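Objective 1.3, modelling of assemblies. Example input:
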Amino acid sequence: MSTANKLIELAEKAREKGGVNLYKKNIEMVLSGLLITGNFWSIVDYADLPVPAAAGIVNTLLEEGYAFIDQNQDIRLTQKGYDLIKEYNIHPRKEYRCQACEGRGIPFYLDIELYRAFLQETKNRPKAIQDYDQGSVTPETTVSRVLFIDSRGDLQGKDIVVMGAEDDLTGLAIALSRKANSVTIIDIDKRSIDFDNEIFERLGIKNAKAFVWDLRKPLPEDMLGKFDVFITDPPETIAAFSAFIKRGISLLKDEGAVGYFGLTLRDSSIYRWREFQKILTGEIGVAITDIIQDFNNYITWDYHKETKAYELAPVKKDPEGIWYRSAWYRIEALPGFSRWNGVISDEDLYLDEEGSTT
Amino acid sequence: MSTANKLIELAEKAREKGGVNLYKKNIEMVLSGLLITGNFWSIVDYADLPVPAAAGIVNTLLEEGYAFIDQNQDIRLTQKGYDLIKEYNIHPRKEYRCQACEGRGIPFYLDIELYRAFLQETKNRPKAIQDYDQGSVTPETTVSRVLFIDSRGDLQGKDIVVMGAEDDLTGLAIALSRKANSVTIIDIDKRSIDFDNEIFERLGIKNAKAFVWDLRKPLPEDMLGKFDVFITDPPETIAAFSAFIKRGISLLKDEGAVGYFGLTLRDSSIYRWREFQKILTGEIGVAITDIIQDFNNYITWDYHKETKAYELAPVKKDPEGIWYRSAWYRIEALPGFSRWNGVISDEDLYLDEEGSTT
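Predicted structure (tokens):
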């Protein structure tokens, strides 16, 4: 019993430091990650935790003498740390991700023409900026999204709306596939909108349009109930998540219509996931058909050093490759779903104790 | 508007025939499947529907003259059917499943030693029988489950319990990996239990044990709270699902412990999925971390012709390859989860209007 208590004690200390709920298993996962890497951002990735939580754990391990920072600014286990790992029978995190499809189950290169066209057209894409909480996914992620949607019967002949996060250029990729009946893209960032519209005009893509809209405001009435599919990347506070998804639902034509969105364990905890899931299945009344972890891989943003996440990091060293990932959700609207198109307040969008990368 | 009504009308007619809730999108998916295959079981697979629902739709299409049965006992579209497809802009279902990992994101061959050992040891495995509602998954599925569990930090050094469905031999595969701290297998079928125990004894696997237990009965008190991971394949009526998962939860040590199980859209509708998800996140109080569609592929069982599904099929032709798949769920217990270890009545387990393959 004494062994269990040591990890629980660490979880309690880390909870105070990180300000986020934590349990024994989280400590295990960080220790498991430390057996593979010393880079803080890679540990966040392995441990599947919000940055403040991972920082709280690493800081606690440093303070309690289980770990130290070496001359390369890497986090290393001390002898005391290795003893702890032995005592608890903790093993290095195993990685079996499929090399072919990057673990998504759908390889982006199965539509190599689309992938090439997307890369070609997006060479000069606008850079992600902090003003709009942007962080672009890899081109492989964007193209995989299109193939995933197609594989579920949600692309061909469908009316699709992309609500925000067009820095990922998902709307553009859908339009380039030329399979949807129509593509409507709304985003607050004029740069993405202009970028898309220029391509649509140049390539003669007539069934796609993009326009600037602040998604905090209700959408134009004539859009409600007009779409088969919405795609979004909701903010991850409970109020804003709920409002974004409800706004998406309000755009759907009828039951059987679907929504896609990303959700992280980097800016939300598993506790909050449960709240989101209760809201989706209860209040909003949809069924969740898919949750694919690590589907969305993000390119580290240029403004990384200006984020709360960077500030919280116990070591100021750059990430090594991709560390920020999100899960890909698909939801299906069932009969009786209700429309909502109200105002989302700034308060709803504010950073809370779990969010840190915006 | 007249176009939308035609599909809705078909959905209403099919709903009466199939006794299961249906909407427009379901009709679309069956028509989309008919553009690729004439085999009823493959259509069920493409359309992701309970068998009674798919049968209801196909029977409606036959009666209304949109489809006919050809001399090979395949279902074919009539000219009227093709006109409908054109009118609604319906396209053949697209398939982008990764060939390397069979769409699971984790290729079974990344532990080729385990795969070989599993095949070697299971050459003479007991055949699936109807008495216990069995239907075995492919060996690739079983091995992929082990790798998946390992990749989430839920295998190495963990105490694992497999509750029922050991005709899949998941418990055996976990034991063969030699990575868990302990493996406990309980199943009603003495054949699987004896099969496992013989192998454990022969190979000198000391940390695994299997014993016969009827999961309708409460588990022995000394098992409660002793495991890090439970794996099960719950019956898909609401009452039995809920009881099975709660029973699994009662075995878990603490928060952060996890459960894995399969859930189909063949014996449950998407409506019921939402109910399951509400029960999981609300009443049971866990978070859902993963839902991977089509993770579990089933070998068509020998007793297929004795099932309600076969009886419901509009055409009595054998399946072509795998048609029965289920999604793989992972859930995480959060603080405050409660234990339940009561009795599950036979009534709870009975077939209902959506189930048909047992």
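DSSP finds 13 helices and nine strands in chain B.
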